[in-house]
Specification:
Length: about 500
């Protein structure tokens, strides 16, 4: 979620390097099932999924937050490319593409017959419009990912050419996110409440505070999804979410919010439990623009003052992965950096004393999301044990948290899961972002990673992750697990949640 916000966040990490899907001068493999004219067995059934963090709007061009693309990307909106459930870049509205030898020009061959739900045909002109619109109409932090584009032009109705100012290992990957969503030139007047896309589902209704309903698009250009109706029902209370499944009010818990309660499902043959990983870094963020965080001793005291294993065991039932960095294990440049600044209560206290900040009060402002509330209490206790005073308060999510923390900067620390894939640059490479961290050395590493070879990308991103850990720019408490519970017989649910979109098209009743 940048955050972009907790599904956040900001934000819904991938296994493949951004350009491994297609190297210079080569084309992708043929479009998978889902190509024009594809068919699949469908049903009149309805499926209801339980989620948390309801969107505040349906317009992800104006509102940061992963809750919107979680619901709409791939399902209602499509991009030229998308991530499959293994994290590989695969065709979507572009059936194939080529990259020039200098890695600066992309030529996309588009599918034929795709239409928006307002009846307009999808053409290369719509792709040009959508790419250019990022610069002219988007207001979110995500728009920076399109700044490398210098030109987008329609070669023909079914061929698009995009030119970059410099080689970018990251750009095509960003196009798998909502940054690459394709919009109708005649369908953007009211996308905050009436999204119009080319996807396999159409937006039907939004009962604010309760649910979003999607209906199968029977005019869809590709393979139609199995379920005719999908209801995304939102819960703020973990117990209510679990009870909804137990009583048959929903069919799937997409994100278990009380891992300690899993036993009631694992012991019941009516249900299946899916456990994998995500790219959701639960970040104890620092407001690095505040004077106190300009002292590395203070930042290090916080990191060393937190017993991460005890914290994860206490606030998330031991579910998750300790990493010590802002890189999830599913990224190619992952390294276990938990040993960089391990828990050391005595050293934390000594560092705080050396800095002359013993007894300093820090405001820890967390969103009203179960993991953040639970972990916030543990962070408060652990940091007070090494000499800080912590004022902990909860802010309604998303509205109050976004206003006070994300936009207003009215905080010292916060806790939120950043679930946008490959978001090191977004979270720590922009001095205007809410973490306010972007050292010249870090920015240079990110630039070298983007513009170099695939090997350079891995090498430099490893260096960047280590720099963040050694400089204590923030503290990744753990990586969220992917914990889902569903009625027995439902298939197509992802083991690992490594993309911002919740792909509903794979769901079936087995």
């Amino acid at each position: 979620m940048t955050p972009r916000l907790a599904r956040l966040f900001v934000p819904f990490a991938a296994l493949a390097l951004a350009l491994t899907a297609c190297t210079a001068g080569s084309t992708t493999s043929p479009a998978p099932s889902g190509s024009v004219g594809g068919t699949a067995a469908t049903s009149t059934d309805k499926i209801t999924l339980g989620l948390v963090a309801e969107p505040a709007s349906l317009d992800f061009t104006k509102s940061d937050g992963a809750a919107i693309p979680q619901a709409l990307l791939v399902n209602v909106y499509e991009g030229l490319v998308k991530l499959d459930q293994d994290g590989k870049i695969v065709p979507a509205l572009a059936k194939s593409w080529k990259v020039s030898d200098d890695k600066k020009t992309y030529t996309f061959d588009l599918v034929e017959g795709a239409k928006f739900t307002n009846g307009a045909a999808f053409t290369a002109e719509d792709a040009v419009f959508s790419i250019q619109r990022v610069a002219t109409d988007w207001t979110t932090s995500l728009k920076k990912g399109m700044e490398v584009v210098t030109e987008a032009k329609a070669v023909s109705p079914t061929q698009l050419q995009v030119t970059l100012s410099a080689p970018s290992n990251d750009w095509l990957y960003r196009m798998t996110t909502h940054l690459g969503a394709m919009f109708s030139k005649t369908g953007v007047a009211d996308i905050a409440t009436k999204p119009i896309g080319t996807g396999p589902y159409t937006f039907t209704s939004w009962n604010r505070g309760d649910s979003i309903t999607l209906t199968r698009n029977d005019s869809y250009w590709g393979t139609k999804p199995y379920y005719q109706t999908v209801v995304l029902k939102y819960f703020k209370d973990a117990t209510a979410l679990n009870n909804a499944l137990l009583t048959g009010a929903i069919n799937v818990v997409t994100t278990v919010q009380a891992p300690e309660a899993l036993g009631q499902f694992t012991s019941n043959p009516k249900y299946q439990v899916i456990e994998g990983t995500t790219n959701g870094e639960v970040l104890l963020s620092f407001n690095n623009s505040n004077e106190i965080f300009k002292d590395k001793k203070v930042r290090e005291a916080i990191r060393r003052g937190i017993d991460h294993k005890a914290l994860m065991d206490t606030c998330w039932a031991g579910k998750g992965t300790l990493v010590g960095s802002f890189v999830p294990p599913t990224d190619p440049w992952y390294e276990d950096l938990t040993g960089v600044m391990p828990f050391d209560k005595a050293k934390a206290t000594a560092l705080l004393t050396e800095a002359g900040k013993a007894g300093t009060t820090l405001r820890l402002r967390v969103p009203t999301l179960p993991y953040a509330v639970s972990c916030g209490q543990v962070v408060k206790a652990q940091l007070e044990a090494v000499g800080f005073k912590i004022e902990l308060d909860q802010l309604e999510f998303p509205a109050a948290w976004v206003t006070e923390v994300f936009k207003g900067g009215n905080f010292d620390m916060s806790i939120v899961a950043h679930v946008e894939p490959r978001d090191m640059k977004a979270v720590f490479g922009n001095p205007e972002y809410y973490t306010h961290y972007a050292t010249p050395e870090y920015v240079a590493l990110m630039k070298a990673a983007d513009e170099g070879s695939a090997e350079d990308q891995v090498t430099n991103l490893k260096k960047a992750a280590r720099l963040l850990a050694e400089d204590a720019a923030g503290d990744v408490l753990f990586i969220l697990p992917n914990l889902m519970v569903a009625d027995k017989g439902i298939t197509g649910l992802p083991k690992n949640a490594i993309a911002v979109a919740l792909d509903l098209t794979k769901l079936r009743k087995g």
